[in-house]
Amino acid sequence: MTGAGGEGTCPVTGQGGGSGPIVGIVGATGAVGTTMLRLLRDRRFPAAEVVPLASARSAGKVLDGGLKVEELADRNIGGIDIAIFSAGGSISREWAPKFVEKGAIVIDNSSAFRADPEVPLVVSEVNGDLVAQTPKGIIANPNCTTMAFMPPMKALHDVYGLRSLVASSYQAVGGAGQKGMDELAEQIPTLLGQREKLVDAGAEAYASVTASVHAKPIAFNVVPWLGSEKEGGYTDEELKMLSESRKILDLPELTVAPTCVRVPVMVGHAIAIRATFAREVDVDEAKAALAAMPGVALDDVPTPLEWAGRDEVVVGRIRKDLADPCSLNLFVVGDNLLKGAALNTIQIAELLVEKGLVRT
């Protein structure tokens, strides 16, 4: 393992000395991977060395901060204490067990292990204690949409006893990675040059652009379909909201009615939620519980644009349901690249160090 220029260690925090864990980032050149590297540096994670790993075509590339990318290969994975994956499910399924065999604890940001009953699915503020229970040496990071509303739901569940959710997401194109953002950016000028058709000949405007990343053209549009079709006409993205909410909150009987929608926003997922509880809710009491929850902020009218780049998930539009005194309506926004992905993985790594589960 080498740092910048291929010589010696390259502590990401500048705190070196070889006393902390060695951290590997698999998929280090992607949007989430580069954010992970930045967070390790900005949060002064006590790593003795950080090793960026990626495909052979990226090997040798020098990243911001001077770290040099190494090829994801058997010869380069020994000695790593914490391996953080953000390279897709197939890479995780192939390589995570190899890192574990070499002595690493794996934090995986894909969907590969989320449903595995022997792999904890962790949101740091909600069930962070589970990092000590890793029979397979792997900790899973939840889907970015589910992640956003887990801290506020945990805060409310502890007060009222959560029973059911109706959750409709408004998901940014950044959830599909850089290629998702690029497709939106490419479609905007074409359609903006046809403003009149956007008003009175929408089908013609629609036909003038093509979609390869999203299910349908996304610029100036809303697409109520993400993922692949599963049972009952639901998508896998929607069913993740059900299964992952149950697992994270440890509520196997929780009912969830999910709808996932792609919107023309670069970064930041939003979720409109109707949450039903075991007892009557009080808005002021609910707001106090949310404000006291780590990682949660309050804003009367939160929007993805103004909260992009911020660590917290934000909750607003908090209203008692018009028909059911035991239900609360609210709107949650979270940066899908930060708390929805990179930030939570780094927080899990911090918990591993804090609890003495890796060398320090």
From TrEMBL:
The protein's name: Aspartate-semialdehyde dehydrogenase
Subunit structure: Homodimer.
Catalytic activity, reaction form: L-aspartate 4-semialdehyde + phosphate + NADP(+) = 4-phospho-L-aspartate + NADPH + H(+)
Function: Catalyzes the NADPH-dependent formation of L-aspartate-semialdehyde (L-ASA) by the reductive dephosphorylation of L-aspartyl-4-phosphate.
Listed GO biological process terms: 'de novo' L-methionine biosynthetic process; diaminopimelate biosynthetic process; isoleucine biosynthetic process; lysine biosynthetic process via diaminopimelate; threonine biosynthetic process
SMART domains: Semialdhyde_dh
Alphabetized UniProt keyword annotations: Amino-acid biosynthesis, Diaminopimelate biosynthesis, Lysine biosynthesis, Methionine biosynthesis, NADP, Oxidoreductase, Threonine biosynthesis
Enzyme nomenclature, EC number: 1.2.1.11
UniProt record similarity statement: Belongs to the aspartate-semialdehyde dehydrogenase family.
The keyword Protein biosynthesis is annotated on this UniProt entry: no
Semialdehyde dehydrogenase NAD-binding domain mapped to chain residues: 22-134
Lineage: superkingdom: Bacteria
Binding site for NADP(+): T29, G30, A31, V32, R57, S58, N336
Organism: Paraconexibacter algicola
